[in-house]
């Protein structure tokens, strides 16, 4: 294994999209930013230099950061942000992981333009558990606003309303031909007939779960969140913000056309504000008798793949049920068979305005719109939780009384809800090292019945069960899959339903858990786990680097 060094210059750059030019905060002047490539076992050093007036941090989404929580990146959770003119070198080793992940800014809404692929290759000589692809291509899905995204979220938090929706979805930064002025600003994927390609699909969009498809081609899913799965074939992939999905694309030996449309558009449940526009790209065959020298733009919408409808929950449910860990001898699924601690967390959005006789304390103001976990709307502290934990200075920074269960019993699927009381606070859940955790996440469907892609830092979890309605602790566990459940770091909690997760708390540190819809995290749908050190030296959080940023 070797050391891979990168420099990320966080700087302003003028970028034109959808006919409008704006100054955006970028890494090295590009959106998406640079691709990081490392092998399992490699050490990765990324020097981040802040040349903008905003505070910055970078998160390596899905990298487990065993004992190296100081490099995880969420602002005020594991580090104070890197201030203007300062730099910080993230330093970590990739242990026991291979596959597709991504990196993004983890402060305010900066990840709108600060994101890029993170590819972990297997160790040298270790093959993929599927046919070797001819080529590997990152497909990074994003969102673009023509206005300033930092202004959008700060205004939404001040007024208590929903933030403006984006102006387009993008594929590798390009909106595609269905948007204004974007016929030329279209992602193109050139392929050779009969070959197999590995598409590393990443949903880096802020607020949209997305369907992804290629007209007249099927996709074989082989990996999610850097964990191999039992391969299955589908026309459409559903991918929530924070998830990654590797698919094999076997292209036709004798295509009928030289070009086919690639398309992505949202999956939206309930009444969430949504833009159901479609971002498109072009799959283009080289060396086929049909191809001409210039890439022709297909005539939309004729060639668009038929994507599921906007609110096709049947598709979503069936797709997630098809995902199973590969669970082979070489890549086993180490599902905790026994459980030491059980938690039931409700996740949901509150109401706006706040109902009379209830409390709706959002993160910024006591009367504004709030989102919560177990009725706690999490406020970020003014110093980093990990520092407070490591130096034994938690007093006044965080409280350790996060509720293990919903504080009030009510019917989560009821409409209207009978409990939206939310209070804010910086409260954490403490775990002893190696605790086997079972966590049920119950969507409350309080106002906007919307699914929430929950992301856990520091761990992968196994999705042992899922269902609709209220979780029933006496009957539902009988149906849990403890053999080959999918293992991942981000899971969509279905609208009006629940998921059951298991994980082993074998990584000491402080680990953020939150909805990966950026609007919801801003409203407080977030919390943190503190995992204490174990007894052995390799079970302890390493000391912080000396140049750790100060708050
Ligand atoms: Cu990709 Cu805390 O997030």
From TrEMBL:
Location, primary (coarse class): secreted
Source superkingdom: Eukaryota
Keyword line: Apoplast, Copper, Lignin degradation, Metal-binding, Oxidoreductase, Repeat, Secreted, Signal
EC code: 1.10.3.2
Main EC class the enzyme belongs to: oxidoreductase
SUPFAM superfamilies documented for this protein: Cupredoxins (SSF49503)
Tagged with keyword Transport: no
Biological processes per GO annotation: lignin catabolic process
PROSITE patterns: MULTICOPPER_OXIDASE1, MULTICOPPER_OXIDASE2
Annotated GO MF terms: copper ion binding; hydroquinone:oxygen oxidoreductase activity; oxidoreductase activity
Free-text function comment from the UniProt entry: Lignin degradation and detoxification of lignin-derived products.
NCBIfam families for this protein: laccase
Name of the protein in its database record: Laccase
Organism whose genome encodes this protein: Amborella trichopoda
